[in-house]
Specification:
CATH class of the largest domain: Alpha Beta
Number of domains: 2
Number of strands: 4
CATH superfamily of the largest domain: Glutaredoxin
Strand content: 5-15%
CATH architecture of the largest domain: 3-Layer(aba) Sandwich
Strand order of the largest sheet: 2-1-3-4
Structural class: alpha+beta
Number of helices: 7
Order of helices and strands: HHHHEHHEEEH
Radius of gyration: 18 Å
């Protein structure tokens, strides 16, 4: 781990990791700083705070807000709830995967511009199918509308 990273981790530790009750806050700060929760960072905090890494991972894996892998600059979140599914979410996902040239198990483009995520429900059934692009809600989405929206975000 380089000196800059260690200094950043020390600052986060000093700010919020003094006690075990702040694991969520620590993880939020780590993710804000690095974009995702890195294994070596969890182990650094585990050693520094004398809190088992398993406690950190318990929180990371329980809450969907935490990510263990790098994510793209643009986050495309497709609702896969019942109404969205019936109204075309699978077709939208297939079109996004095709347009972004994502492999079968791939969720982030090689150039780190896009990450495709699925969620169980965004709570906007009246405008299904729903997709969020960088947290902007798009309703009554079709595969062709989705491709057009993605073009606006391509660099």
């Amino acid at each position: 781990m380089d000196t800059q990273t260690t200094a950043t981790l020390e600052a986060i530790y000093d700010k919020c990791a003094a006690n075990e009750d702040n694991i969520i806050t620590v993880l939020q700060e780590i993710q804000k700083e690095f974009g995702y929760i890195q294994e070596e960072v969890v182990h650094w905090f585990s050693e520094r705070s004398n809190i088992p890494a398993s406690k950190y991972y318990g929180v990371v894996t329980f809450y969907s807000q935490f990510h263990q892998h790098p994510r793209g600059k643009n986050i495309v979140t497709v609702c896969c709830g019942t109404v969205c599914h019936v109204k075309g979410a699978p077709r939208i996902i297939a079109k996004v995967r095709e347009d972004l040239k994502l492999g079968e198990d791939q969720v982030t483009t090689k150039d780190m511009q896009f990450t495709l995520e699925r969620v169980n429900c965004v709570g906007a059934c009246s405008i299904a199918p729903v997709v969020l692009v960088n947290e902007k809600v798009l309703g009554k989405v079709t595969p062709s509308k989705m491709v057009k929206s993605l073009k606006e975000h391509k660099g």
